[in-house]
Amino acid sequence: MSTNKPGVGDSFPDIALETPDGGSVKASDFAGRKLVVFFYPKDNTPGCTTENIDFSALKDQFDAAGVALLGVSKDSAKKHLNFIEKHALKAPLATDAEENGLSDALGIWAEKQNYGRTYMGMVRTTYLIGPDGRIARVWDKVKVNGHAAAVLEAAKAL
């Protein structure tokens, strides 16, 4: 795990992720456009479901503002497909299941604690990336309520 977390002004790592359809996606695929990448711990858990539904509900507004969306967790492509179908999600998802993948490069696959148990997990984090591929804003340890709307406003202002 890297301790040099990329921050505002740094280039967003260009690491390929698997898409639910078996393809791949990486930040450079969105060169020249604004991109929001939101990382969340796990499909079909209450906070993660709410976050994905909120981003999906605003997808048309993100599109109208010229902003691409991408949700990322360590869940498999198959789990993502089920999650998308179950909740009619519109925001595209990708899998960061590889060791030393994108979440590792960003320093957000980290040690977490819950009910006295220590484990590795995804720290809920959102990145706004400018058309130049540089990080314009980072939301760390995201609280879900109102988050997607706040990200939309920041993306429009960029």
Which helices and strands, and how do they pair?
Elements: E1 17-18, E2 24-25, E3 34-39, H1 46-57, H2 59-64, E4 67-73, H3 77-87, E5 93-95, H4 102-106, E6 109-114, E7 117-122, E8 125-129, E9 135-139, H5 147-157
Parallel strand pairs: 3-4, 4-5
Antiparallel strand pairs: 1-2, 3-8, 6-7, 8-9
Structural features, described:
It is a single chain. The chain has five helices and nine strands. The model has no long low-confidence stretch (mean pLDDT 95). The longest helix is centred in the first third of the chain and has 12 residues, at 46-57. It has helices spanning 46-57, 59-64, 77-87, 102-106, 147-157; strands at 17-18, 24-25, 34-39, 67-73, 93-95, 109-114, 117-122, 125-129, 135-139. By secondary structure, the chain is of the alpha/beta class.
Which features would summarize this protein structure in a list?
single chain; about 160 residues; alpha/beta; two-stranded antiparallel sheet; 9 strands
Task: Provide a short characterization of the protein structure.
By secondary structure, the protein is an alpha/beta fold. The chain has helices at 46-57, 59-64, 77-87, 102-106, 147-157; strands at 17-18, 24-25, 34-39, 67-73, 93-95, 109-114, 117-122, 125-129, 135-139.
How many DSSP-defined strands?
A: 9
Mean pLDDT, to the nearest integer, reads 95
Q: Percent of residues in helical segments?
A: 25-40%
Taken in chain order, the helices and strands follow as EEEHHEHEHEEEEH
Describe the main β-sheet briefly.
5 strands, mixed
Low-pLDDT residue spans: none
Strand content: 25-35%
SS element count, helices: 5
